[in-house]
Design goal:
CATH topology of the largest domain: Tetracycline Repressor, domain 2
CATH architecture of the largest domain: Orthogonal Bundle
InterPro entries: Homeodomain-like_sf, HTH-type_TetR-like_transc_reg, HTH_TetR
Number of domains: 2
Keywords: DNA-binding, Transcription, Transcription regulation
CATH superfamily of the largest domain: Tetracycline Repressor, domain 2
Number of strands: 0
GO molecular function, one term: transcription cis-regulatory region binding
Order of helices and strands: HHHHHHHHHH
Distance between the termini: 36 Å
Organism: Nonomuraea rhodomycinica
Structural class: mainly alpha
Number of helices: 10
Protein name: TetR family transcriptional regulator
Shape: globular
CATH class of the largest domain: Mainly Alpha
């Protein structure tokens, strides 16, 4: 659906605030830049900045919000009868192939600058953990809804899956931040992901894979 002029203008303003803030944070440090200074640089009011971003931390981390539901959505939209881990493995490998920043393998300078900023700023690291926990909780709910099993099983499965993704992504990002290009990291990233998801499949088996456990499959 084509956006109207008003919506397009809002997106442009939000993007300008984000890009300006990131540039200032990278140059001077997150703690040494105020929201008022960002607003002045973009020529909007401080209130306008907070209309788009609830907190100063959210200015940096807002792109992560678009990925919070990724794993839950993959499980929800997978083929009937397909085990959740199989669908999640395929999605992760596809993201690696596309050099998606959400799996830590995008070596664009701007992306790396943002990730370095997050990892070196305690307030941002703490806030990023909140996003991780939200993703885990959304996946837990989806697994519980579709498997028909008790909530504890869904929580254990979701914790294993999200922790595996985080470990893989963290290793990819560590190597990129150390100066390795994404094309050099990619083969190892694929091998690591295959090995990690093999471990998940061995532990979780065909969990959430029976036709009767898929949403809409129960009588």
């Amino acid at each position: 659906m084509e956006l109207g002029l008003r919506e397009t203008k809002k997106l442009q303003t939000q993007r300008e605030i984000w890009e300006t803030a990131i540039r200032m944070f990278v140059e001077r440090g997150f703690d040494d830049v105020s929201v008022a200074e960002i607003a002045a640089a973009v020529q909007v009011s401080r209130k306008t900045v907070f209309n788009y971003f609830a907190t100063k931390e959210d200015i940096v981390l807002s792109p992560m919000d678009a990925h919070v539901e990724d794993s839950a959505r993959v499980v929800r939209e997978r083929a009937p009868g397909e085990p959740a881990v199989v669908a999640l493995r395929r999605d992760y490998l596809d993201r690696l192939a596309r050099r998606d920043a959400s799996v830590g393998i995008n070596d664009a300078p701007h992306t790396l600058a943002v990730m370095r900023l997050i990892l070196t700023t305690p307030a941002l690291t703490t806030r990023a953990y909140v996003f991780h926990e939200r993703a885990r909780e959304l996946l837990t709910r989806e697994l519980a809804a579709q498997s028909g099993r008790d909530d504890v099983t869904a929580r254990v499965a979701a914790a294993q899956i999200t922790s595996t993704r985080a470990a893989l992504t963290g290793e990819n990002l560590r190597r990129l931040l150390a100066g390795e290009p994404s094309d050099a990291v990619y083969p190892d990233a694929v091998a690591d992901a295959e090995r990690a998801f093999d471990l998940l499949e061995h532990g979780l088996g065909d969990y959430c894979g029976h036709a009767g456990g898929h949403a809409g499959g129960a009588a």
